[in-house]
Write a structure and sequence with these properties.
The structure holds two protein chains of two kinds. By secondary structure, chain A is mainly α. Chain A contains ten helices and no strands. Bound molecules: zinc ion. Zinc ion (ZN) binds next to helix 3 of chain A.
Chain lengths: 224, 191
C-alpha cells in the first residue's frame, strides 16, 4: 500500500474509534485517494469474514457445576477464616508477627550487651585483684565476684592461685581473700570439678582468649 | 430485566456479599458466570483453562469484596480480573505456545479423524481463534477480544486493560490488520 500512514486509521473502522479530527482527515483522504478507498472497502468486507470466524459464542457446558465449585471453595475459605479466629492464640503466628520479631531481636541485643559488659567488668576486676594481691592494699570488694555462687567463687580463687604460682608470686594473701569471700581456702585444691562445667565457668570468667589460664589450672590439679 | 436494573441489583448484591452473604454471591456468580466463561474461553481457547480462570476470578472477588465499590460495574471488574489472571498466570504465554503448533487449515479440512471433542462448538471455535490469532501478542489479542468480541467501548477497554486510549487504538488496529492478513493467507492456501 502506498499511503502507509493511513493504515492505522483505516483499521479503526468502528464508530467512535477515531477522534472527530482524525475521522474528518480520513474522509478527505479517502475522497481524494482511490487506492486507499479500495483498501478501506476491502477491509470492511474482509472484516465481516474475520468476525464470522471468531465471534461465535463459546458455551459453558455445566453452569450449575461451576456455581457449585465456586461456592464450595468460598465456604471452605470462610470456614478456615472462622476456625483461625476461634482457635485464638497461635504461638506460630505470634512468633512470626513483625512486632514480636522486632521485640525479640531487641531483647536479644540488650541481653548480649549486658553479658559483654559483665564479661569485661569481671575480667578486668580479676586482673586488678591479681595485681593487688601482692601489693600492700587489697580489698575483696575490688573484684566483682561477691555476687557469684559459692562454687564459682572457688574457681576464681583456684584460677588466681594458679596464675600467681606460675609467675612465682606469693600466694599468702589469697587465703585472706578467700576468708573475705567466705570460702575455705584449704579445700580449694581438692575440689573435683566436672571437666565440662569447669571449662564453661572458666570461659565465663576469662573469656576464650586467655591461653595461660588453662595451663595454670592444670598445674594446680597435678599438685598432690 | 433491563441493564440498569441488573446493575442496581449487582450493587445490592455486592453490599450483601460485604456482609458475608453467600447466597448473594451465588446470585452474582449465576448472573455473570456465562459472560466470564465466554471471555475467558476466548482468551484461553481451552475449556479447563477458561473454567479455572473464571473460578479464580470469582474467588478473588470474594476475597477482596470489602474493597469493592458496589456502584462499579460488576462485569468490568470481572473482565479486569480475568485479563490480569490470564496474563499473570502465564496462560497468555501458553496461548502463544498453543497457537504456534496449530496445523494448517487445509490439513484439518482434509482430516476425517476429528475427535468427538473437536466436533463440539467450543473446540471448533477454539481452533478457529487459535488459527487466526497465531501472530497476535497477548496485549493485542486482549484488546481485540474486549472490543470486537465482547463489544465493549474503547473507554471500557482502557479501564480494563490499564492501557492508554491511544495505546488501545494502536493495539486494536494492529490486531485487526494481522487477523485480516492471516485469514486472507489461510483462505488463499486452502483455495
Ligand atoms: Zn491514500
Amino acid at each position: 500500500m502506498k499511503h502507509r500512514k493511513w493504515i492505522r486509521s483505516i483499521y479503526l473502522l468502528r464508530n467512535d474509534e477515531l477522534s472527530r479530527e482524525e475521522q474528518r482527515a480520513l474522509d478527505v483522504h479517502l475522497n481524494s485517494c482511490e487506492s486507499c478507498r479500495a483498501v478501506y472497502e476491502n477491509i470492511q468486507m474482509d472484516w465481516v469474514s474475520v468476525m464470522g470466524e471468531m465471534s461465535a459464542q463459546p458455551e459453558l457446558s455445566n453452569p450449575d457445576l461451576m456455581t457449585h465449585n465456586i461456592l464450595s471453595k468460598i465456604e471452605t475459605i470462610t470456614a478456615a477464616v472462622v476456625q483461625e479466629k476461634t482457635t485464638g492464640f497461635s504461638l506460630w503466628d505470634f512468633m512470626f508477627q513483625p512486632r514480636t520479631r522486632v521485640t525479640l531481636q531487641l531483647a536479644t541485643l540488650a541481653l548480649l550487651a549486658v553479658f559483654l559488659v559483665e564479661q569485661i567488668q569481671v575480667t578486668s576486676s580479676l586482673r586488678d585483684l591479681e595485681m593487688q594481691l601482692h601489693s600492700e592494699s587489697y580489698k575483696a570488694s575490688h573484684a566483682r565476684v561477691s555476687f557469684l555462687p559459692k562454687a564459682l567463687k572457688s574457681r576464681v580463687i583456684v584460677s588466681l592461685k594458679g596464675r600467681l604460682e606460675k609467675r612465682g608470686l606469693p600466694v599468702g594473701k589469697l587465703e585472706q581473700f578467700s576468708g573475705a569471700l567466705e570460702i575455705d581456702a584449704s579445700q580449694l585444691e581438692f575440689q573435683d570439678f566436672n571437666k565440662q562445667r569447669t571449662r564453661l565457668s572458666e570461659k565465663w570468667f576469662h573469656g576464650r582468649s586467655n591461653p595461660w589460664f588453662f595451663k595454670g589450672q592444670k598445674q594446680i590439679r597435678r599438685q598432690p | 430485566m433491563t441493564n440498569s436494573n441488573t446493575h442496581n441489583n449487582d450493587a445490592e448484591l455486592i453490599k450483601a456479599c460485604q456482609a458475608n452473604d453467600h447466597e448473594a454471591f451465588r446470585l452474582l456468580v449465576q448472573r455473570h458466570q456465562a459472560t466470564a466463561f465466554r471471555f475467558a474461553f476466548r482468551l484461553a481457547c481451552e475449556n479447563a483453562d477458561a473454567e479455572d480462570l473464571c473460578q479464580m476470578a470469582f474467588i478473588r472477588i470474594w476475597n477482596y469484596r470489602q474493597k469493592l465499590q458496589p456502584e462499579a460495574r460488576f462485569s468490568t471488574l470481572l473482565y479486569t480480573i480475568i485479563s490480569r489472571l490470564w496474563i499473570d498466570t502465564g496462560r497468555s504465554k501458553k496461548h502463544r505456545a498453543l497457537t504456534r503448533h496449530v496445523e494448517p487449515l487445509n490439513d484439518q479440512l482434509a482430516s476425517n479423524e476429528l475427535s468427538p471433542e473437536m466436533l463440539s462448538l467450543n473446540s471448533d471455535l477454539a481452533e478457529r481463534i487459535k488459527r487466526l490469532s497465531k501472530k497476535l501478542p497477548p496485549r493485542q489479542l486482549l484488546v481485540f477480544t474486549l472490543r470486537d468480541l465482547e463489544d465493549l467501548s474503547i473507554n471500557e477497554v482502557v479501564r480494563i486493560t490499564g492501557i492508554s486510549t491511544a495505546g488501545v487504538k494502536t493495539n486494536l488496529s494492529l490486531a485487526r490488520r494481522k487477523l485480516r492478513e492471516r485469514l486472507k493467507a489461510i483462505t488463499e492456501v486452502s483455495l
